[in-house]
Amino acid sequence: MIALLGDDRGHRSHQELNALRPQLAELGAETEWVPTDSGFEISDYDGVWLVPGLPYADAAAVFTALAVVRERGIPFLGVCAGMQYAVLEWTRSVLGSAATHAEIDGVGSDNAVAALACSLDGVERLVTPVPGTRFEGWQPEPFVGMHFCNYAPTAEAVAALEKIGVVVGATADDAGAEVLEFPDHPFYVTSLFQPHIGALAGAPVHPLVRAFANAVAERR
Questions:
Q1: Total of domains in the chain
Q2: How many CB atoms are located within 10 Å of the residue 54 CB?
Q3: Which CATH number does the domain housing residue 43 bear?
Q4: Omega before 55 cis (within 30°)?
Q5: CA distance 137 to 129
Q6: How far apart are CA 4 and CA 72, in angstroms?
Q7: Which residues contact 215 (CB under 8 A, 6 or more apart)?
Q8: What's 99-134 look like in SS3?
Q9: Is-above-0.85 flag for pTM?
Q10: Which of 117, 140, 6 lies closest to 62, judged by CA?
């Protein structure tokens, strides 16, 4: 069972996620929406997908869940806002550094997530896998990724995480790090592009999502 951790507000990205759920079920991975303010126990799930959609109703609960999946090796996929919050949690908890989100906390010198120079809200970009990474093993060729974001981890935050073993798995113009692979974990991967977009039109499951589902099955 995969927790779709987030607050379903019915916008395009969440509609696409709901359309993807039957495809995930065919891969043997059932899914359940878990509202961030529902008093959930994240360790009850075999995998966690922190979905797009800020602000989360209970940000503190999200950070607690992120600590649990990091410490207990629960397969994790963080997309868009999920990527941003993962970077905040790792920067604070693992690096021990201050880390804020410019959209939520205001612009400041300790922003680990800041506004993109070019808005990618509803914009496609060519995403290029980095040779030799896990992501490149799942998705060898460049592809067009859809984005619904105005904010992303800063280059400085990414560089600091790279020093402790975080790997940039893919890049794109105007977006910088599109995929981050986190170390010392069976599967902890984040993406700025939204790999579930296309499910409404019947597109095949993206290799990143398939790899996540496989990791959940292996843990189970």
A1: 1
A2: 18
A3: 3.40.50.880
A4: yes
A5: 9
A6: 18
A7: 47, 75, 186, 187
A8: CEEHHHHCCCCCEEEEEEEEEEEEEEEEEEECCCCH
A9: yes
A10: 6
Q: One-letter amino acid identity for 11? A: H
Helix (H) or strand (E) holding 79: strand 76-79
Residues contacting 26, CB < 8 A, separation 6+: none
Give residue-wise pLDDT tens across range 197-208. Answer: 999 999 999 999
C-alpha dist (Å) from residue 37 to 25, 40, 56, 79, 105 = 25, 8, 8, 19, 20
User: What residues are paired with 167 via a beta bridge?
Assistant: 181
Task: Tell me the pLDDT tens digit for each residue of 46-80.
Answer: 999 999 999 999 999 999 999 999 999 999 999 99
Give the separation between CA 39 and CA 168, rounded to whole angstroms.
33
Nearest partner of 95 among 153, 17, 18, judged by Cα: 153
Angle between helices 81-93 and 155-162 (to 10 degrees): 50
Pairing between β-strand 47-50 and β-strand 2-5 as defined by DSSP bridges: parallel
Range of the domain at 151: 2-219
55: helix, strand or coil: coil
Residue 191 has pLDDT above 90, yes or no: yes
Question: With bands split at pLDDT 50, 70 and 90, how would you rate the model's confidence at 220?
Answer: confident
Q: How far apart are CA 220 and CA 164, in angstroms?
A: 28
